């Protein structure tokens, strides 16, 4: 993943590793829209019905991250957790930082905008962290790809899921990533593709007409993650052309 200063993880945590912040997000209360608000400049023209739009302006996107600390905190621990968040926000009052959204593979340049709200419960804390993007759009995080019998270095700070694709035809294909052997006990037809998603632990066949079927029954339930360092993809059997196999992922780098 492109360098980011903080991120919303795929499993729903707000994480700022440099400040040791890892808080569970409340998705029902948080505002995490990726659609900017717009305003139009328009003019009325004689003889025409309605306004004619001259231009459309897209507004910066607001983010309000509502999150909770772990439960059963002592009064001393609550003070420490609150100080972590305040120190983080004090830094970004005058700095634009990168907020990554792991599930969407995008990041936004954001600044602190508004005021921190803290609700102190008996055993936990609730934070409302307001941020605003500096532009009306996010930037796509570039992916890394290994094709066939090759290796690629990952600089991820934690293991990340990947998407493995096997293009048909293939006869009970077996591939591996590092020490994990991934076995499929039936054929992949010509024009079809088999996708193993190790983030979501799913195995899907997509036929030549785009129809999807769950293929977990035919799989050995191995869902390897990309690790920091060298990752090696190998085509072991059942596939004539090694270039029919690839693995794609996004590094998470702070």
Jot down its keywords.
six-stranded antiparallel sheet, Jelly Rolls, mainly beta, 1 helix, seven-stranded mixed barrel, 2 domains, 7% helix
Summarize the structure.
The chain is built from one helix and 21 strands. Strand 17 and strand 18 form a beta hairpin.
Number of strands: 21
Characterize the biggest β-sheet: 7 strands, mixed, barrel
Q: What is the distance, rounded to the nearest whole angstrom, between the alpha carbons of the first and last residues?
A: 9 Å
DSSP summary: helix tally: 1
Q: How many structural domains are formed by the residues?
A: 2
Order of helices and strands: EEEEEEHEEEEEEEEEEEEEEE
The average pLDDT is: 87
Tell me the overall shape: globular
Low-confidence stretches: none
CATH topology of the largest domain: Elongation Factor Tu (Ef-tu), domain 3
Strand order, main sheet: write it out.
Answer: 1-2-3-6-10-8-7
Helix percent band: under 10%
Structural class: mainly beta
**Percent range for β-strand residues:** 35-45%
Which architecture of the largest domain per CATH? Beta Barrel
Radius of gyration: 23 Å
Instruction: State the CATH class of the largest domain.
Output: Mainly Beta
Give the arrangement of secondary structure elements.
Elements: E1 6-8, E2 13-16, E3 21-25, E4 38-44, E5 51-58, E6 62-68, H1 75-92, E7 97-101, E8 106-112, E9 117-120, E10 125-133, E11 139-140, E12 144-147, E13 150-154, E14 163-167, E15 174-177, E16 180-183, E17 193-197, E18 202-206, E19 212-214, E20 229-237, E21 245-249
Parallel strand pairs: 1-7
Antiparallel strand pairs: 1-2, 2-3, 3-6, 4-5, 6-10, 7-8, 8-10, 8-11, 9-10, 12-21, 13-20, 14-17, 14-21, 15-16, 15-20, 17-18, 18-19
